[in-house]
Amino acid sequence: MTTITTHEAKTHLSRYLAEVEMGKEFIIARGKSAVAMLVPMKKPKQKPRPKVGETLDPKWEIPDSAFAPLTDEELKEWGL
Question: What are 29's strand-pairing partners?
Answer without folding.
Answer: 5, 34
